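Box 3.1. Reading complex inputs
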Amino acid sequence: MANEINALVDNLSVVVDEQWSKTCVMPMLCSQDYNDSMSSGGQGSIITMLDIKETEAPNTLIPGYYPNAANVSDVVQVTRPLSLDYYKEKNFQLTSKDLDDLKALVVPKTVARNVNALVEDFDRYIYGKVMEYAYQSVGTVGGDPFASGISILSDAAGLLDDASTPNEDRYFVVDVFNNNKATGLSTFQEADKAGPAHTLLTNQIAFAVNYGWYKSNNVPTHTPGGAR
Amino acid sequence: MTDDGAGAVSDLIAGDQIVIAGDTQTYSIVSVVNGATEQTATIFPALVQTTIADADAVTVTAAHKLAFVFQKDAVQCVSREFENFEQLRRMGAPVQRIAHKSGMVISVQYNGYHALGNWHISLLAGAAVEPLKEGGIVRILT
């Protein structure tokens, strides 16, 4: 029995990975470069992230120069604190059919639902943080940003450029309603026709608009605290 | 920023977007401290306009969906194995594994009792959205 449980837990970890990767949005898009994943921590632990110093002009060399080990100013790192303040669980029971599925590495519905619940909650946790540090905004409340084109994304790109944001790894996270509006536009339809099969479905559309394009069911509505 | 026009202690909340009269920059509310008759809010980015006067109007953006564009480095996400897991594993129970193919550390556990019951998944994680010079987040209001 013990060996069987061990094997089932192994399989559960595999299907949890599979389901998580299929459904999560924000953790996949965030920088996880600081994620020394096998270190342990406690709830509320502060992780000190090391951030490589911003790019500086290269040093001028003269013939005969030999690298000086003490000259490491180009790799000096700055630290940023990050609190492990998200600690949540899901508990569930598995039926005998679920266990059979698990043995065959099929994701049981119960597991899928519970993983999805954790994914959605963690996505919302990150969205909450994002709202606190939005640099600017484009569009108008109640407006229809994709009524006739995608110029709003160009406007947003301009603001990112103003903030000296790198061009690579830019993402657009959109709610389902606006995703459906946007993907009906000719820009997307033409990209869909030009690309391989399932261009829209597989997010390859991203390269038509210079953003990674991610639809999420979990995009929240922010309701302000009070009227002025 | 101190808002002495706040009548109720819950007037501004983290995540609100505000516009200050005469300023073209919008600001996000990072956090607020509620006083008896006023709120002190931390805003992002830092105040751009230097000529703001007492009693300048502050407008809060109405309820909106949070569609947004961002650069990867603006949002950092970290997950960790819970510190007691290794200790529990050495004690022989519960049976646990770490699922981390997706980059996140998800603890998977069987708590015993009977074969069908008490399976458990958990996540210990954190995220920071630092005002990195090289990163940025822009809301798409809708």
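In summary: Chain A touches chain B through 111 residues (CB under 8 Å).
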